[in-house]
Specification:
By secondary structure, this protein is mainly alpha-helical. The chain is built from six helices and two strands, in the order H-E-E-H-H-H-H-H.
Length: 153
């Protein structure tokens, strides 16, 4: 009986190990940093929620948001690489505030928290957790470009 259970578990393990499971895809690589497709989709979903774009009824607009999101993320990674040389940082509380503003904008544009979650494809708390690093990168990039343009004037 025990031998049968062990063999069953072994065969199940072999069966499942034969199937490849795609967890995510690489959308872009900047130096040693990777932009994941799931991050691009998350960003595009946030933009879609803010701009009231339904991917099902407006696939072309949504495709443009996907492209815009990927370009923005690549640009941010390039700028972040540059900011490491100049040691540009942002405070955690500023990231939290910006993230909360983003969420409130999404909820306001979509009409309700439930609709926002539906458009984002996840709960608001999950969105905040997933989007936090992106928001930090966005703020660092904004701060760096602001410093650059201030020095030009």
């Amino acid at each position: 009986m025990i031998l049968r259970k062990i063999l069953s578990l072994f065969f199940l393990g072999v069966l499942f190990s034969q199937q490849s499971i795609l967890l995510d895809e690489i959308a872009a690589v900047v130096d040693d940093e990777v932009v994941l497709l799931s991050d691009v989709v998350l960003s595009a979903n946030a933009l879609a929620a803010q701009e009231n774009v339904d991917p099902n009824t407006s696939p072309n607009k949504y495709k443009n948001l996907l492209l815009k999101s990927s370009e923005t993320m690549i640009e941010q990674l390039v700028i972040i690489k540059m900011t490491k040389i100049d040691s540009v940082t942002v405070l955690e509380k500023d990231v939290e505030r910006a993230l909360e503003r983003q969420v409130q904008n999404i909820i306001s544009e979509s009409g309700s928290k439930e609709t926002a979650e539906q458009l984002l494809g996840r709960k608001i708390s999950e969105f905040k957790r997933s989007y936090k690093n992106d928001m930090e990168g966005k703020l660092i990039a904004e701060k760096y470009t602001s410093q650059l343009t201030r020095n030009i004037q």
